[in-house]
Chemoreceptor zinc-binding protein
Amino acid sequence: MASSEILKEITKAKGAHAAWKLKLSAAIAVGKTDLDPKTVKCDNLCTFGEWLYGPSMTPEIKAGMPYKVIKRLHAEFHACASSVLDKVVAGDLDGAKRIFETDYAQISDKLMTGMSKWSRELSSELQQS
């Protein structure tokens, strides 16, 4: 897979994961969600997850540290988003807000930072070639 293709996927993923902040915030605000927390927890069902786990990933990419870090952070992101939704579904909006403002905010920032770093590394590789 070419570095330019990876860059495109990372850019799309950054937008999609930023949208989760709005989805979770809205769920907390209205006290309900149509999203299934168990499904949200699965990090291979979103578009980025399908790509991360998909056949287009070469063994070389999977062996690299950027891939390993992003894959781990992405799984943590989904687990945390699911925890927020679990609290919303249970009616524990204070608990949902607490997770959203602490754990979710931290892992979301780490994931976005990791994707940005990977993008910069790939951009640098493209410029050198």
User: Anything to note?
Assistant: The chain has a mean pLDDT of 93. DSSP finds six helices and no strands in the chain. The chain has one domain: 3-128. Residues 26 and 81 are 13 Å apart (CA to CA).
